[in-house]
Amino acid sequence: MNDRQQRILQYVTDNQRVAVAELAGITGVSVVTVRHDLNYLEQGAYLKREHGFAVAADNDSVDTRMRSNFQTKKSLAEYAASLIDEGETVFIENGSTNAILARLLAQARSITVITASVHIANLLRESRCEVILLGGVLQKRSESMVGPLARLALEQVHFSKAFIGIDGYHADTGFTGRDMMRAEIVATALRKCACNYVLTDSTKFGEIHPHSLGELFLIHEVITDAHLPVLFRQQLEHDGVRYTLIDEK
């Protein structure tokens, strides 16, 4: 996805329904070029097309959430990808930034990826990566494998790094998630005691959700963007949690 396509994607996400002619005006290219860009974005399931318009998808899929703060999430994913060595085995949990990480890994890496995300496994199907998809109950909305079978499968595999997403962070609760069954998978992964990375944009900080994702001492590093407020930087430091702030490219 080039810079112009990213700009189009963000504009459509922000405005929900945009005329092709308007997109041509804001990008400074022809309507024909915009149509080519929209074809590419629609094929990648980033948006939908109607006659003369580009429309943001109206569901809660990983692809839909990926469009929010896309460039920030892409910068975070690029940094995370740089931490993974050729031939390494890693666990990648669900979430929009992790999905972008998977897209990057699909381009050029020969690694083993363990995941509970059907979406992420699908992104890697044409890549050089070896993919281990955990069994279990399919949670259709999030496209995640959850439940006792998924936890048991996760306990039987080994990896050197884990990349997880979160829904919230607060000093009183630590990292939290909206969904109990997904939170159980994350907690199981963290207890494997690999190098555990929280991969999230800073908008999640300050939110509290019902389900704890595990003890803070299990987190090796938080990877987030440079918009993280000073208050949360201080809280992470107080809790002994290392963090890296990434500037948007």
From TrEMBL:
<dbReference type="Pfam" id="PF00455">
    <property type="entry name" value="DeoRC"/>
</dbReference>
<keyword id="KW-0805">Transcription regulation</keyword>
<dbReference type="InterPro" id="IPR014036">
    <property type="entry name" value="DeoR-like_C"/>
</dbReference>
<feature type="domain" description="HTH deoR-type">
    <location>
        <begin position="1"/>
        <end position="56"/>
    </location>
</feature>
<dbReference type="InterPro" id="IPR001034">
    <property type="entry name" value="DeoR_HTH"/>
</dbReference>
<dbReference type="InterPro" id="IPR036388">
    <property type="entry name" value="WH-like_DNA-bd_sf"/>
</dbReference>
<dbReference type="Pfam" id="PF08220">
    <property type="entry name" value="HTH_DeoR"/>
</dbReference>
<protein>
    <submittedName>
        <fullName>Putative DeoR family transcriptional regulator YciT</fullName>
    </submittedName>
</protein>
<dbReference type="InterPro" id="IPR050313">
    <property type="entry name" value="Carb_Metab_HTH_regulators"/>
</dbReference>
<dbReference type="GO" id="GO:0003700">
    <property type="term" value="F:DNA-binding transcription factor activity"/>
</dbReference>
<dbReference type="InterPro" id="IPR037171">
    <property type="entry name" value="NagB/RpiA_transferase-like"/>
</dbReference>
<keyword id="KW-0804">Transcription</keyword>
<dbReference type="InterPro" id="IPR036390">
    <property type="entry name" value="WH_DNA-bd_sf"/>
</dbReference>
